[in-house]
């Protein structure tokens, strides 16, 4: 027994990568899952995996750049599934490049998806989470929220803001019984790298050599940490940002010239 059987989670960015792996893991622990993402087809693939665990999957396609979507997602989830116990803010957008090359459209998009959407989802979800016996939020940040990585000024800025939101909302929502934590992954083998890497295998090799543990992570390894932070047995923790990054924030390994 996981202690979460019959509970409901809303997971953004659930079509691929960390979000899909998290949805599958939560389903395996007996949780019903609302799946959010821009593209219906990947969400439906995740939904099939969720439903194979004997629980309900709710497919909710939508673009989190739309400021009206967070409230609708929470309303549709609670109406269809009757409750909301866990919110996983995982969806993100990323554009890599020099600071002076970013366009206003890219700045607005990053702020809308990576920072505003988690903020508005937290606001919208608070009443339902407060009604849960163990309401919990997990935000998915990034190691670049803590370290300077060339070409990541915009993405890193929004992830640093997400980490502040994690601590601030954990403090404010504690009196309502809602725990808020975050994980900060290093490089993970997910489709997000395709937006900047022409040669994905070469990019993976380069990223791996820069990590002290010498490899990238698999999405399932991050999903495990999401579960750990919502597991009722870890209910005495809130406001934490857990680095799950193979030691990336420690610096380059000696073999990489560090």
Any overview of this molecule?
It is a single chain. With 258 residues, the protein is an alpha/beta fold. The longest helix is centred in the middle third of the chain and has 28 residues, at 104-131. It has one domain: NAD(P)-binding Rossmann-like Domain (Rossmann fold, 3-Layer(aba) Sandwich). Helix 1 (17-28) packs parallel to helix 2, helix 1 crosses helix 7 (219-230) and helix 4 (104-131) runs parallel beside helix 5 (153-173). The model has no long low-confidence stretch (mean pLDDT 93). Helix 1 (17-28) links the parallel strand 1 and strand 2 (32-37). A seven-stranded parallel beta sheet has the order 3-2-1-4-5-6-7, sandwiched between helices. It contains seven helices and seven strands. It has helices at 17-28, 40-51, 69-81, 104-131, 153-173, 200-209, 219-230; strands at 8-12, 32-37, 57-61, 86-89, 136-140, 179-185, 241-244.
Topology:
Blueprint (H helix, E strand, L loop, with lengths): L7 E5 L4 H12 L3 E6 L2 H12 L5 E5 L7 H13 L4 E4 L14 H28 L4 E5 L12 H21 L5 E7 L14 H10 L9 H12 L10 E4 L14
Helix pairs in contact: 1-2, 1-7, 3-4, 4-5
What attributes does this structure have?
alpha/beta; 14% strand; 7-stranded parallel sheet; 42% helix; Rossmann fold; 258 residues; globular; 7 strands
The gist of it:
The chain has 258 residues and is an alpha/beta fold.
Q: What sort of overall outline do the alpha carbons produce when their principal axes are compared?
A: globular
Helicity level: 40-55%
When the domains are counted, the total is: 1
SS field, number of helical segments:
7
How is the main sheet built? 7 strands, parallel
Using only C-alpha atoms, the radius of gyration works out to: 18 Å
CATH topology: Rossmann fold
Supply the CATH class.
Alpha Beta
What is the structural class? alpha/beta
Instruction: Please tell me the overall pLDDT.
Output: 93
- Please name the CATH architecture: 3-Layer(aba) Sandwich
* Major β-sheet strand ordering: 3-2-1-4-5-6-7
In CATH, what is the homologous superfamily?
NAD(P)-binding Rossmann-like Domain
Given as residue ranges, the uncertain stretches (5+ residues, pLDDT < 50) are none
Query: What is the string of helix and strand elements?
Result: EHEHEHEHEHEHHE
Tell me the span between the first and last alpha carbons.
45 Å
Strand runs, count: 7
Strand content: 5-15%
